[in-house]
Amino acid sequence: MKMKTLAVMALAGSMTAGTAMADLVIPDLSYRTGPYAAGGVPFSDGYQDYFALLNARDGGIGGEPVRVIECETAYNTERGVECYEATKGEGALIYQPLSTGITYQLIPRTTADNIPLHTMGYGRTSAANGEVFNWVFNYPANYWDAASVAVNYLLDENGGSLDGKTIALVYHNSAYGKEPIRTLEDLSALHGFTLTQLAVDHPGQEQKSQWLQIRRERPDYVLMWGWGVMNQVAVQEAANIGFPMENFIGNWWAGAEHDVTPAGMAANGYKSLNMNPITDYPVLSEIQSLVHEAGNAAGDGSNLGSVLYVRGMYAAMLAAEAIANAQDIHGVADVTPAMVRDGMEALEITNARMTELGMEGIGPEFAVTCQNHGGTGQGLVQQWNASAGVWEPLTGFISPDASVIAPLIAEDSAAFAAESGITPGCL
Amino acid sequence: MSADFLYGIEVVLNGLMAGVLYALVALGFVLIFKASGIFNFAQGVMALFAALTLVGIMEGQVPFAHLINAVFGTNIHHFGWQVPAILAIFLTVLVMIAFAWAVQHFVFRHLVGQEPIILFMATIGLAYFLEGVGDLMWGSSIRTLALGLPQGGSLWVEEMTNGLGGDDFYGFFIDKLDMVATLVALVLVAGLVAFAQYTKQGRAMRAVADDHQAALSVGISLSYIWVLVWSLAGIVALVAGVMWGAKSGVQFSLSLIALKALPVLMLGGFTSIPGAIVGGMIIGVGEKLFEYTIGAPYLGGATENWFAYMLALVFLVFRPQGLFGERIIERV
């Protein structure tokens, strides 16, 4: 009897495992708890809802259902690594951890395990060099692109010259916050503006000193590299000292609805970069009807269409397109992580394809190559309309200054290759 | 007067008021430590929980809505009414009193006589439990605190002082919210001191703080006093949560404000209510003045966090019990 029971259990187990192996497994290293949950929740909702839409509408990708495994990191690097170790054995095809700290820990691990890592607009900037970082991708844009896009926008606002202007950088005093400094220093030398740096310690709840300094020195513009509570406090402090909001520009991690709503009307006019213009994409209606109304929403449905929801959805779309590309390249539906990497390296996102997906204009057109894992680096500027409670796109996609960014990426990636013993080349 | 000197005075004034905000958090620690010898690691989370509860009640949010919806398949989030601020504050105070009773009844009653480190670890567990309950109860999104607290710099102060230092001086910047917080803190401290000095419960609280055994021998209920003290700490947490929440919105990073209170406690002492205020102001002024004169110009800025702890350490070396703490006397 006992042996019979064990045999039945073993058979059932093998059948379950067989089913699981046939799924396309996508881990979602999310953070729905802790101090950064306000940013993590909408991103994760958008990420998961898009895969739920593909399952409901198309039966998955290429006929293979998608199985999302959510793992809570609380934006904590150690827990992020634990999540990676706990989920990679499930047949994980791609990781998008939404954390620069976790990204740095996962780069050597995913490389050793041959699993692609996609860090869209965050992580290690020089991973754009695909000949050094074979398994890491950061298309369509990275931090250094963001800094250059912001400066190019300001150049445009000032008739092509920033000579004699002063730009203050208010940044999170961490590896993330310090990322744009080198780029901005080079751009400062190139365009003749003075760069002032103001570091804000984690978590950023107290910024009085920094904003008193801004009030004293009266820079022409303030750029911000913030995340979490730092963003809300900075917007409030800027309003408190009467700094002109239209001259205050956050990066794309400082431009969500929850970054500005606590300050109320005082936040009106604040600007930020974004990777995606916020508008009524047709795909959002599909998610509403096929996912939310079917009771399969990842969250409570309240984040649909918000800045970080759209970004999460966009990240999921890029992953899904890479998987579909891998299926086409290798002629199989049940792809492996290595095949997905091939799909990512040959990915081409066109306006026609985005329109076909119900996401017309959600991102720039770009093509990934072995040499360039970073895309075009384009971003746009959006502005907060407090009375309407919406982010309004102010510009189209702005290109970064490749003549400044490319040498920096080459230098940093070469240093990484040297210290890691990597011989650059394509797989 | 030179503009630099006047800006130095501005930094001192803002440091004083920032220090009062730190002290608001530190007060909760002091109340509990003084009466029970427990270092309450959960004080920051209590501030978060109290502020979340206040906003949730004001907005008419259904507590545990996500849990209810997940279990019963419903889709409810709000009752459909808004609660006036005064009533919501009263109801939040009741919730914090209920929390104090639950903490005493379910946790500390069973730990009477245990080592301080055990009690401390219990408060660590309590902090994470309360953070989880707060998330389940009210969700993790950032809320706006609509209490009508003033925001922005005082234009009156700015205009009155504008001409003091020539063209390079733009007048003193004083945040109106900081002024309100200072007034609230002063009223709170005066109220707490009056309560401790002139009420029967306050005297009983002081008796327990002085000597548990002696207080028990004259019929004071230790359990009642602990509930009272945790309730007061809960009310102080609500005030701190409101003031900090008005700056950043009510969000889970509010629990981290406890980090700003630790150097205040080290400096002011764990057992003195005025010590928390004075300690807070010394830390506030010290860290801001250091950032203004040395940190930002020579060290790249962001020196306030570590400098506050360094300043507290220096005080600890010379006065381990803190500026206003009770003197430590060990007799063989």
TrEMBL record, chain A:
Keywords on record: Signal
Alphabetized InterPro entries for the sequence: Leu-bd, Peripla_BP_I
Secretion signal, residue range per the UniProt entry: 1-22
Superkingdom: Bacteria
Domain Leucine-binding protein: 29-385
Gene3D superfamilies, per the entry: 3.40.50.2300
Family: Belongs to the leucine-binding protein family.
Record-linked PANTHER family: BLR6548 PROTEIN
Name under which the protein is recorded: ABC branched amino acid transporter family, periplasmic substrate-binding subunit
Organism: Yoonia vestfoldensis SKA53
UniProtKB/TrEMBL annotation, chain B:
InterPro entries: ABC_transp_permease, BCAA_transport_permease
Compartments where located: Cell membrane
This protein's GO CC annotations: plasma membrane
Chief place of localization: membrane
Transmembrane segments: 12-32, 38-58, 79-102, 117-138, 179-198, 218-244, 264-286, 306-324
One function term, GO molecular function aspect: transmembrane transporter activity
Name of this protein: Branched-chain amino acid ABC transporter, permease protein
Organism listed in the record: Yoonia vestfoldensis SKA53
